[in-house]
Amino acid sequence: xxxxxxxxxxxxxxxxxxxxxxxxxxxxxxVAHEVRVISAHRTPEAAREFARGAAAAGVRVIIAAAGGAAxxxxxxxxQTTLPVLGVPxxxxxxxxxxxxxxxVQMPAGVPVGTLAAGPAGAKTAALLAIAILALADSRLxxxxxxxxxxxxxxxxxxxxxxxxxxx
Length: 167
Hints:
Layout: E1 6-10, H1 16-28, E2 33-37, H2 44-54, E3 61-67, H3 72-77, E4 84-89, H4 97-104, E5 113-114, H5 119-134, H6 138-166
Parallel strand pairs: 1-2, 1-3, 3-4, 4-5
């Protein structure tokens, strides 16, 4: 695989299915990426080393997914100036609210772009990473425009079907 431009880091292997949509979108757009399991709590040195070396390794955006206490995105953001996008993973009795609050409540000066919890957040994180990369990549910018146009066509088609049902 080419040098990874986006890193998807999972706090646990149980996060794989939620984040699959992010990897699938990056692949569809032809964006080189890697997926790894690195825990902010169980492997803090690995998280630190990854974040500190990511830019030199060619990573341009980090997507960090974690549930529960969900410190992964913040722990990574504290060690790099790369954009870090946090995806809270629904789990436990709070259904992801705990992960959302842990991801979004960062101190001033250590930014984490927090997305929706779960699969929608995973896909949105990938699209935001693509938009960030598209600032310096005209091919990606054009692909993103086509993707948005496709979404608009799909909504128009659904609108026409619904209107026909009630027409």
